[in-house]
Amino acid sequence: MSTAALTLRVLLAVVLGWSSVSKLTPSGRRGLSDMLTQLGIGRQAGWVGGLLIVGEATSAVLLLLPWTVVVGAGLATVLMAVLTAGTVLILRRRLKVTCACFGSSSTTIAPIHAVRNGLLLLGAAVAASLGPDVPADLVTAAVAVAVGAVLAIVMTRLDDFAFLLSPR
Q1: Interatomic CA distance for residues 10 and 4, integer angstroms
Q2: 166: exposed, middle or buried (Cβ count in 10 Å: 0-12, 13-18, 19+)
Q3: Number of domain units in the chain
Q4: CB-based contacts of 31, cutoff 8 Å, min separation 6
Q5: CB 96 within 8 A of CB 108
Q6: Contact yes or no for 152/15 (Cβ under 8 A)
Q7: How far, CA to CA in Å, does 6 sit from each of 77, 113, 161?
Q8: FRET partner for 146 with CA separation of 20 to 30 A, picked from 75, 91, 93, 136?
């Protein structure tokens, strides 16, 4: 279980870190603001967006520190629950919102985004339950870190993979 725990922590830390940094770019801020406005948050979009960015960055750091793993995974679970609910709400309202989760994108939020967020929510909950366990040997730990990083790249570039695999 220690391998799974480390893999999930790396996956979540990279995804949340990438997400928070990408929202600090001009196009990321604009995309986040547009999305929050369409969800009816409007006037509070600035502080809600700021809270989201700080929460993502904080969770990413806490997930990597052994003594704060459970708190980081708990925060990641809450964040992913909120983001999953927001994605489902966008889909149910049939809003045409551009996904600004990992920087600028021209992709409209689709069911695949809800699935991605749901999987990350599940991963965060499992990481919280597994705690700060790490593999005993260096090779296993290195493999867990590498697998977590590759999975994070897949999650953050999901729009690109979906485009490549879609019939045209």
Answers
A1: 10
A2: exposed
A3: 1
A4: 23, 98, 99, 100, 104, 105
A5: yes
A6: yes
A7: 16, 24, 25
A8: 75
pTM attached to this predicted model: 0.91
Q: Which of 108, 67, 80, 87 is nearest to 15 (CA)?
A: 80
* Residue 139 CA: distances (Å) to CA of 127, 143, 146: 21, 6, 11
Residue with tokens 């979009």: 45
Copy the structure tokens of residue 103: 């920087």
DSSP output for 73-141: HHHHHHHHHHHHHHHHHHHHTT---B--TTS---PBP-HHHHHHHHHHHHHHHHHHHHTT---SSHHHH
Range of the domain at 48: 2-165
DSSP run (H or E) holding 40: none
The DSSP secondary-structure symbol of 65 reads: S
pLDDT in tens, 87-130: 999 999 998 888 777 766 778 888 989 999 999 999 999 999 99
DSSP 166: S
Positive or negative, the CA dihedral 23, 48, 33, 15 is positive
Q: Kindly report the length of the chain.
A: 168
